[in-house]
Amino acid sequence: MDHGGRPSHNGSVTALLTLFMLIVLLNVLPAFAPPTWIVLSFFGLRFPDADPWLVALVAASAATAGRTVLASLAQRVADSRRFPASARANLAVVSEAIAQRRAASSAAFLLFAFSPFPSNALFLAYGLSKAPLLLLAVPFFVGRFVSYALAFAGGAVVADRLEVEISSRASVLYFVIAQLVSIGLVGLFTRIDWRRSWRERRLRWVG
Question: For 105-153, what is each residue's pLDDT tens digit?
């Protein structure tokens, strides 16, 4: 700490490194990890004078790194002998479609990155499809960087002007439901017959 009561330079660097490692670990977990914005909220309370763009850069880099590792682990699952060859061939259709529509896919991923929805299911499903990771990682980083910076910078202002109490039970319930839905969506993703669904323009399920 310096004489003004603010964290020293070394303390700030240590805090940012700790923030980076924590967010990476949380984003590697496939489910039931606290969302990154909660970690940023605590960091903002501890370091209210921190540069929001620097914090957002660290957080977005860490979240992207963690989710990329998660998608890579899903790719290994798809490559394993225990993963049915029929499922691997089915999901390869998704990979081909993403590769053929790079611009549209990147735009869709960017819009998702600005949303508050959990990204674990997206990266798990994407990893299972074995599509190129950069097509998801780059727009995800950009979207999270901007959204984290705005959230970190505006959080203190909103908290000062609005007296809103959110029920902890409601927050926990929403978190649990969101995670269960995410896991269910990954399961549904692997059960869709993608080739028939795109050909017939309606959902078809693997028999």
Answer: 999 999 999 887 789 999 999 999 999 999 999 999 999 999 888 877 6
Q: Are 145 and 57 in contact (CB under 8 A)?
A: yes
Is the pTM value of this prediction over 0.85?
no
The span from the CA of 153 to the CA of 59, in Å, is 13
* Residue/partner pairs of 156-160 with CB below 8 Å, 24 or more apart: 156/44, 156/48
Using an 8 Å Cβ cutoff, are 126 and 136 in contact?
yes
DSSP for residue 7:
P
Instruction: Decide: helix, strand or coil at residue 203.
Output: coil
Q: Which of 177, 74, 60 is nearest to 118 (CA)?
A: 177
Are 129 and 95 in contact, with CB atoms under 8 Å apart?
yes
Q: How far is CA 158 from CA 153, 154, 166, 207, in A?
A: 9, 6, 14, 51
Of 156, 118, 177, 128, the C-alpha closest to 40 is 156
Cβ–Cβ under 8 Å, residues 71 and 126: yes
Return d(Cα 94, Cα 174) in angstroms, integer.
Answer: 30
Q: Which residues of 23-56 are buried (b: 16+ CB within 10 A; e: fewer)?
A: bbebbbebeebebbeebbbebbeebeebebeebb
State whether residue 192 is helix, strand or coil: strand
Query: Contact, 86 vs 3, CB < 8 A?
Result: no
